[in-house]
Amino acid sequence: MTEYGASGYLPLEMAGNTFLSTRTRKWNYVIRMGYLLKEDIDPERLRRAVEDIHTRFPSFFVGARRGFFRYYLECMNGADVVHMETEYPCLPFDLFSRTVPIIRVLYDRRRLSVEIPHLVADGKALTVFTRALLAHYLELGGLEIPPGSGLPDLREPPSAGELSDDYRRCYTKMPGKIPKDGAARQYRRPYIKNYLKVIHGTVPLADILTAAKARDVTVTEYLMCVYLYAFYRADPDAPHSCKPIKARIPVDMRQFYPSGTLRNFTLYRNLGFEPRMKENWGFDDIVEAMRGKLKPSVTPEAMRELLGQTVTMAGNPFLRVIPIGLKRWFFKLGYILTGEKPMTGVLSNLGRVALPPCVAERVESVEFIMGGSIFKSLSTFVLSDSRFLHIYFSGACSATDVQREFLRLLAEEGLRVRAECNIPGENEREGGL
């Protein structure tokens, strides 16, 4: 398999292989980023913007293909991916379509959203793409964006670094194996096909910074403790559980390596506490139990070691020579045992979405959500703009127990919290808030 170029092929990296191998008809790990503007979307202008940036971001306009030993991506051209939003967010893709790239650019009144399967890119890369699309859409409407705004130059071709598999590029073989991460208490709620409940909570950024500083923890540590406590409060059997309650924290590896990849480059840490070690855990107890656990687990040295061990395991010579049909079952079994069982829920902090000031003036809020999973009932993404922290809960179930406990605790902590069902039309659909 050649690298992406005139051939139009792009080998899948480690995370993309995992996501593609563990897909089902009901679920293929769709992520979505969007912006709520202060003006209505012009569909024709949006189509022009997508056409203009297509060649600048070729790795986002692809279809999945099967080889005999491995999957790969193929560049696709000429398909209209811009549509008015009429369905639930993050519905599964036909990943192997020969006619339509596995990307959706959606609009609904003032909302502009982009959906892709996670096998294409991670949240950081999707942020870069959507910022560029939004800025160019506004430029076509007459907005002047000054040079030096931190946006990709659409006149330049994509760099080799943007298309790089940085798992392998940055890989250094490490001795030993990844320490076994025991099973966590599972949060299971009835799965609803072709459905996604999204709850959007907002908190003034100053409030969350003050609350975290008062407890001498980072914002991510503070939110992780709130998340763990919400699961503990929402589950009446949790106090008697023999399994820990653990949050999965994605870690962007670009902070440890000189990387500009617009593909996946994320690893994970699972952190939590043992409910049976104490009766009647309070929030203060969880903060003390978790204090100092996150920082040592995400040092450059610890993450380099995890990267080396993970890539070594994924590159097992035995797996390389197994036909793709059989290899898929090995990946799926490994994902269930090592990817799903060691966590209760996902909490991803994407950080601040930095838009040029002239673009930010046109934006009311930002969003990031993930489609429903048959493996886990709830995923939570956190990101911020210049004023607010945005918390997005999404899941293919109608339950709102953890979400209520999470937002209630923030209010009890003195933070000014607002919650709403954010996706257009959701209140009129079955299972709305």
CATH topology of the largest domain: Chloramphenicol Acetyltransferase
> Which series of helices and strands comes N to C?
EHEHEEEEEHHEHHEEHHHHHEHEEEHE
Strand line-up of the largest beta sheet: 10-9-11-13-14-8-15
Number of domains: 2
Number of helices: 13
Helix vs. strand class? alpha+beta
CATH class of the largest domain: Alpha Beta
**CATH homologous group name of the largest domain:** Nonribosomal peptide synthetase, condensation domain
Largest sheet: 7 strands, mixed
Outline:
The protein has 433 residues and is an alpha+beta fold. Helices cover 30% and strands 22% of the residues.
How does this model look, in words?
- It is a single chain.
- 41% of the residues are buried.
- Residues 423-433 have low confidence and may be disordered.
- The chain folds into two domains: 3-170, 2-Layer Sandwich (Chloramphenicol Acetyltransferase), CATH 3.30.559.10; 197-421, Nonribosomal peptide synthetase, condensation domain (Chloramphenicol Acetyltransferase, 2-Layer Sandwich).
- It contains 13 helices and 15 strands.
- The chain has 433 residues and is an alpha+beta fold.
Which labels suit this protein?
433 residues, 30% helix, 15 strands, globular, 22% strand, alpha+beta, 5-stranded mixed β-sheet, 2 domains, disordered C terminus, Chloramphenicol Acetyltransferase
